[in-house]
Amino acid sequence: MIDNTENSQRKNKIEDTEQSACTLCPRDCKKNRADGEIGVCGETAAMRIGRAALHMWEEPCISGEKGSGAVFFTGCPLHCVYCQNYAISDGGTGRQITVEALVQIFRDLEAQGAANINLVTADHFIPQVAQAIRQAKDQGFSLPFIYNTSSYVRVEALRMLDGLVDVYLPDMKYMDVDTAGEEFPPPGHSGDFRKYSHAPDYPVVAKAAIAEMVRQCGEVVLDAEDAYIRRGVIVRHMLLPKHLLEAEKIIRYLYETYGNRIYISMMSQYTPVGDIGVRFPELADKVRRKSYRKLLDYAVNLGVEQAFYQEGEVAKESFIPEFYKE
Structurally, how many domains does the chain consist of? Predict the structure, then answer.
């Protein structure tokens, strides 16, 4: 058991070294988030969440019949132009919580029957999240912790979670620098000339991040009785309209690098929201079934065996969670 004095010392050290000149994400903004400055993620070091509830729409081994205890964090370092969770990633919706309150949320979700705790887009709050997981485990909390991330995160930051996270659920969004986008535009420019995430380093960063996740968690382990995931890595790729060739590159890279040590989740749920079709006409429509089928066939022909795919009509705004309204 870690005493409160040690917890407090660790907390102060983490915030002083990691968030007083923030370098948690590759943006390297060096904002003093611990003192109230807002980083590129849109947040100070004061942790905020946009939703905490049972979530039924993850992969079967995560949600199952019980539901995943999902905690959605406010803010995001990546700022994808097509983000379906815009209300919390860029819209600022959220409620401020402490580390102790987050631990209580874990317990509340457990009491509701959650199969696991699913931490969604918490990269800019990793020090606080690590503290909360450690406190919960020290108190005997036993549900698996799933870390759900864009993969735009430093390896050094992920190492704060080593031994704490049981399952990683990362995205692999892009292989091409042109798709990932140019750097953030200078002041005075609208920025619509860039591509989708202002992150030309995304492919390199994500590859390194996923490698670290696999190092930490190893091969996928499913419970023999209920088939829920207990350990491992599931890498997601959401197919974008007119980006089939890049999606195939991603599937090939993942399979050639990790084989069946990981699961690959191929998603067709892209939903055009807001004025995305005006700013980026190629993203105006949903993914065509034919394109998605081609991606699945490509994966099968490649030899991929450990995979998830989506059936039916999943590209609907009704699948976007309802976040706190504040």
Answer: 1
